[in-house]
Amino acid sequence: MVDEIKEKLNKKLENSEVLAHREVAAGVHELEIDVGPKGRPVTELAYLTGKDGERSPLRFHEGGRVVTRDFLRRVDLDLMSKSPVTRMKPDKIYQQAINYYRTKGHYGTIVDTLSNFAAKGFKNDIDDLDIKLFYDTWGSEINFQETVEKVFFDFFRVGLVRTFKIVGKFDPKLKPENFQSIVKGRKAKGFKTSSSFDNVIAHSEWAAAKKIWSKAFVPLNYTILDPTMIDIQGSLLFDQTETFLKPEAFKDVREMLKSQVGLSQEQKKFLNSLPKELKEDIKKNKPVKLPSELVGKCDYRKQDYERYPMPKVARAFDHIDYKEELRKADFSTLDGITNYILKITIGNDEHPVTEQSQLEAVASLFDTSSKSFDVVWNHTLQVEKITFPEIDKILGQDKFKQVNDDISQTFGVSRAFIDGQVTGNSKAIEIGVKAFAEEVNYARRCVKRWIDNEYEEIALAMGFDRYPQVRFDENAVKDEIMMMSVIQGMIDRRIISYETGIEKLGLDFNTELANFIQEKPLVLDGVLGIIGSPYNPKAIPAQQAPVQKDTTTSGKDSTVTHQDLDAFQKNVEKMLEQNIQKIQRTPTGTPSEGRPRTGGKGKPRQKGNPRAPKPTKPQKS
Q1: Which of 151-155, 317-321, 361-365 reaches the highest mean pLDDT?
Q2: Please, what is the end-to-end C-alpha distance for the chain in angstroms?
């Protein structure tokens, strides 16, 4: 009978649905109404007519419904889950890593943080200023630092980095004043190589014969290859592999090769810079074998017997997917919260409801698409809103704590680097910072090996006997001020050498030594001399403060005039001017040896030199 009543009730109402109805007492009825925006049409909220059309109290009885679904076996669940990383193809893994970087904030922030710290402070260090000038000019002209940042970015994001370069004659747009003389002078000297360079020189001669690059050509442009398009083939023994690119990677280049009509000068120059064999392979619309001389590589933790490196995020795929499912559960919960149930009770023992029209009138009051109601009824009306229980616990952050910790542990990056949250004691935080620094240093070593190969080829092409050493900022995650203070004290006390101290500061000793030698004439001329150095205690000998005695006659007030104050100020300025050294005076054999010590007012004061006069005390009137 309850179902029959509900069917008759749920016919006319447009925005509500009667979920339950029962008679609490004689003439007292309870209705549960769903007032959500997607409620089914409803006609009446109660029905009090008996079977023969006469009014009679309804007899309420509970009913139930069993929801049946197709069952799943454990095997089916395993098949429906995502494929593990070990079964995925490399290009799918790299694509998933790229997608996660773009969509998952936690992973994206970790990659950005590691890349920023690793690429910070990129410099070239060499004691030969001419070679340094050439490499700095070349790097600035082709935006090599930007290329290095991109290498670090893909190194942490996907783990597989392959660079492809275009070579040609280097002619910078903005040349330093002595740039051309450096190039010509170095080429005239020829090669000055050791036995370790012999194989490289032979390789360069062979490459020049193939017109891929020659001793007159250097890299003019770099590009980072799409890891999802890379196919590594060949024997892994002693790294006899070759790099192939899928045909779709050269789609745009293939179109330009078919017809060069309408191409810009830059595009035509780009096509002319490509090797002839490479252009022929691109036209065939097949996997293209890239010349090994033009391909550079930098892989994240790959052994010789492994064909492809795995991205760092691969170990966190399951954790990230689990966190995504938790977020989906939150969205589902929020969707359910937008709908709620109103439990409406009208009538009581003293004022029972005996007519169906009263129930219909109440139902019409709540039959609205809006979730705000204007209800006018007697004192027997009771409305109870049934909402989702414990919503704050369901939508809270506590459920994400474990998965966030798992992701952070997978990457080995403290939460302090990501969102500033600090957990654990100071010792644990210090160890976490050291682990982060070692991960950054590992990436720098890998990228440095790639840069050294590029610099070596440039040195051979230009006739240089050496090439610069790459330096990064070693103090990125250290307390710079404290470290510099400690190193300075250790050098002053001769606990460590100058070379060790300079290297601890992250600088190259040979480069700094060359800078000192170059600056020495300026120091001897007094241009870079230190005036009144506070770090030399013998620069200004200590003097006793003048003794002030009150010579005023007892019982009389002393008066100071403006003339007295002006005279006192002039005496103080004269004393300071005579006591401040024009240039630093130091004993022979100290670390400051080499400062200007001869000529004029900067001449060191002898023991017999008179001291500066003391300031005159203002006279009393």
Answers
A1: 151-155
A2: 121
Q: Per-residue pLDDT tens for 216-257?
A: 689 999 999 999 999 999 999 998 999 999 999 888 888 888
Distance CA 528, CA 519 (A): 8
SS3 362: helix
CA distances from 390 to 40, 320, 323, 337, 486 (A): 28, 26, 21, 11, 56
Rounded Cα–Cα distance for residues 245 and 247 (Å):
6
Q: Give the start-to-end residue ranges of the domains of the chain.
A: 2-66+341-386, 480-545+558-602
Q: From CA 339, how far away is CA 542, in angstroms rounded?
A: 85
Which residues make beta-bridge pairs with 234? Answer: 241
pTM of the predicted model as reported, rounded to 2 decimal places: 0.62
Instruction: Report the alpha-carbon distance of residue 487 to residue 269 in Å, rounded.
Output: 52
Question: DSSP letters of 333-362?
Answer: HHHHHT--EEEEEE--SSS----HHHHHHH
233 beta partners: 242
Angle at 9 between CA 8 and CA 12, to 5 degrees: 95
CA distance linking residue 194 with residue 139, whole number of Å:
26
- Tell me the C-alpha distance between 129 and 150, whole Å: 28
